[in-house]
Amino acid sequence: METITIKELAKKLLFRDNKTIYYHVKNGNLPKPIIIKNKSYFEIEEINKIFGIKNINEVKFIDKKECMKILGMQSLQKLNYLLIRKRIPFYRLTNFTGSRYLFDKAQIKKIKDDDKLSFYFSADVLHYNIMGDFIGKLLECNAITSILSEREIDVLKEIFVNRSTLEKISNKYNFTTEGVRQIRNKAQRKITLSMNKLSQIHEQYVNKILEVSYLKEKNKWLEIELKKLAGGQKKLSEAEIYGQKLSDLGLSARSYNWLKYNKFETVKEVINYCNINGFNKLMIFRHFGKKCLSDVAEVFLEKFNINLYDYK
């Protein structure tokens, strides 16, 4: 039976003294020790079950500060957020001073070395990498000079490109660390505001393009009529128009086939139907949609100068 002394366990769990061990025993967080020759010991198997590990002697526990150093984090708030979301494996013990979080050093190193995991866990480092690339690209095209002042550009360069700490920057430019932080936050707000304005301008541009394309489509019929008037098209008599067969008009195959399927053979039959029911009512026929309707209207306007949309 393998055992571990109270002193060794307290050292493993990063406790300052043995009193905390007795507190956890009293509250049921740790098993009761066994006494051998007037000395207290814990069974290693019982301790392993509590923490869900194979052997506590092979595990090196670290605290929050050490965990943040390994993962490259600069914000304790971010680490606490990841703990709440259970994104990082940890061991928790509650004592009279509050909750104590312990981390397996090997597991944390594994997280850091794994690119996929570091994407989720090293949130601050990832943020700095993205911002560094973004600021670098803005500096390359000189676009940032129209948004930020020289001082703000210098501070962002130091933080995101050169990865300098706030203390180094404050010493270099004779600012306080709080002043550097305020300059950084203000510069980021300016960039965000400019990006939002740019997206709004882009949206307005897209809407204008759509509006222009709609107007072009709408004016298509007027252009055809103007061409006919300018070309002095020969006018056909009513009898000649009505006698024309749909097969001779050059309709698209889909439009002609569905008109024929619905027993329309001549121009007269189409005009009579539109005169009684309206041109748009042609769409009640199965598979005769807007495209076919537009095709028929265009051919009638071009060939006979008849606007079928006038029939309502």
Number of helices: 16
Number of strands: 6
Radius of gyration: 40 Å
What portion of residues belong to β-strands?
A: 5-15%
Low-confidence segments: 115-126
Q: Strand pairing plus helix content: what structural class?
A: mainly alpha
Largest sheet: 3 strands, antiparallel
Short structural summary:
By secondary structure, the protein is mostly helical. The chain has helices spanning 6-12, 19-26, 44-51, 64-71, 76-84, 105-113, 115-121, 123-140, 150-161, 166-173, 177-218, 220-231, 238-243, 253-261, 267-277, 290-304, and strands spanning 3-5, 34-36, 39-43, 61-62, 91-95, 98-104. A hairpin with a 2-residue loop joins strand 5 (91-95) and strand 6.
Question: Would you write up a description of this structure?
Answer:
The chain is elongated and about 125 Å long. The protein has 312 residues and is mainly alpha-helical. 61% of the residues lie in helices and 8% in strands. Helix 8 crosses helix 9 (150-161), helix 9 crosses helix 11 (177-218) and helix 10 packs across helix 11. It starts with a strand and ends in an 8-residue tail after the last helix. The chain has a three-stranded antiparallel sheet.
Question: Mind sketching the topology for me?
Answer:
Layout: E1 3-5, H1 6-12, H2 19-26, E2 34-36, E3 39-43, H3 44-51, E4 61-62, H4 64-71, H5 76-84, E5 91-95, E6 98-104, H6 105-113, H7 115-121, H8 123-140, H9 150-161, H10 166-173, H11 177-218, H12 220-231, H13 238-243, H14 253-261, H15 267-277, H16 290-304
Antiparallel strand pairs: 1-3, 2-3, 4-6, 5-6
Labels describing this entry:
three-stranded antiparallel sheet; 8% strand; mainly alpha; 312 residues
